[in-house]
Amino acid sequence: MNFPLLPGKPAIFVAGQWISASGTRPVLNPATAEVVTEVAEAGPEEGEDALLAAHRTQRSWARRSSVERGEVLRAVADAIRENQEELARIVVTEQGKTIGEARGEIGGAATWFDYYATYDRRSSGTVLPSERPNEQLLIRDEPCGVVTAITPWNFPAALFARKVAPAIMAGNAVVLKPHEDTPLSALALAGICAGAGVPDGVVNVITGSGPTLGDALVRSPRSDLVTVTGSTRAGKEILAAAAATVTPVSLELGGKAPFIVLDDADLDRAVTDAAAARLWNCGQVCTCNERTYVHREIYDEFVSRLVEEMSRVVPADPMSETSRLGPKVSEAEWRKVRDYLDRAVAAGGEIACGGGRPDGAEFERGHWFEPTVVTGLGNDAEIVRDEVFGPVLPVIPVDDYEQAVDLANDTDYGLTAYVYTGALSTAMRAVDDLSFGEVYVNRVGPEQLHAFHGGWNLSGMGGDDGEHGYRRYLRHKTVYLGHD
Ligand SMILES: NC(=O)C1=CN([C@@H]2O[C@H](COP(=O)(O)OP(=O)(O)OC[C@H]3O[C@@H](n4cnc5c(N)ncnc54)[C@H](OP(=O)(O)O)[C@@H]3O)[C@@H](O)[C@H]2O)C=CC1
Ligand SMILES: O=C(O)[C@@H](O)[C@@H]1OC[C@H](O)[C@H]1O
Prior knowledge:
20 strands; Aldehyde_DH_dom; Aldehyde Dehydrogenase, Chain A, domain 2; seven-stranded mixed beta sheet; Ald_DH_CS_GLU; 39% helix; 484 residues; six-stranded mixed beta sheet; 2 domains; alpha/beta; binds NADPH dihydro-nicotinamide-adenine-dinucleotide phosphate; binds the ligand O=C(O)[C@@H](O)[C@@H]1OC[C@H](O)[C@H]1O; Aldehyde Dehydrogenase, Chain A, domain 1
């Protein structure tokens, strides 16, 4: 491994310094299952030190003008772009997505910093008249203080940017804990931030386990806001832990996106998009197509074309320029998907293509999974209800629009839904009827960063991006400004 952006030893990044921690832990390459390097395994005490470092520097960072902070964010965006290739290779090495996807992720990370830099000259707060003469009421937007950011493994660079850019633009300092499987991108980005002029202590990255280090960060009275992307299980635990200190929490959690194809849809587009929305990042995106509902009139043709489309996507070395599908991130995630599929078959599901590890010596090591289509199951099947987070797609026939929407809404999740139809009136009806935080009509993602990405129900609370996401990083102070 030759990544100059990473520290030469296992270390966390606190107060602008690379510091050794009490333990170390290996990072594995998902394509080969080989150890790539060791990273620091920090515990609660080191977490508290990081929060203290953030706390000490936050006030002076917030005192800078927003125009100055915006300049720093722009410098970070430029530095990310200058290092795009190395960063993309780090993402591929620790996470397993294809190099093309990884370059897109790094481009997105830079754009988050550029976008939130535009908040440098926005109007901020509200000015109100008073009931009294010679008095003005001001409702000021202020930073929360120290933000604890907890991130998952599926977008280790983009999600760093999604949390850090708005947090520091608003004048907060951040302690970010990446997922243990994918700590390298965040460490590299921490160094990039420092090199681009982010003051020491404003962005800290500390590596370690969620239930120990992460839990301690959440419970610490020094955390003024906790923002999380990850599983619903982790989100619930974190929300419960934060209750002790009444710390605000923003949760972007799992999803179970329905993908509805009605009989007046453009079938070519629906087939291509259904496969793309399932296979993106090897099926490991909270917005992925997790269950497809197809009008009975076109069901057989749709399934046969979907099988063709999915079968064309052959897993290959994610560093290869032509690869369209990398491995899953870890043995545990591979096993989880394999077990879901086995139980689906035991429950009567039929595998229309794929089914597990592809044939070939190059796939014997690593966490490879073929694109897989499953038919013959109903809405009660486990694989149709739980988030699978892999390249396995159940397809279900529906009689009409009403049934499609009823089945789509019959879920505990509520992040993303897709609908394909040729009629604007049906599309608009679906937008009204679908109980999800974001609805895509005749198109797939990714979402745009000036919009809003937030789930309903078990998919979370709060959310990221755009103005609505930015406001999570602010709190409000009302000033009664007498000037007699
Ligand atoms: N919404 C989304 O975008 C994502 C959803 N998922 C879903 O989650 C499933 C499993 O993911 P998994 O690998 O377990 O990771 P999680 O999604 O549960 O972990 C996300 C982050 O939370 C941390 N964490 C976990 N538990 C706690 C806790 N009690 N207190 C504080 N921090 C905690 C993790 O630390 P640690 O390093 O120890 O894991 C990690 O940094 C996937 O199969 C998928 O279904 C996964 C990724 C993203
Ligand atoms: O974590 C996820 O899966 C999503 O938030 C994901 O992150 C970057 C992508 O654009 C999102 O869909």
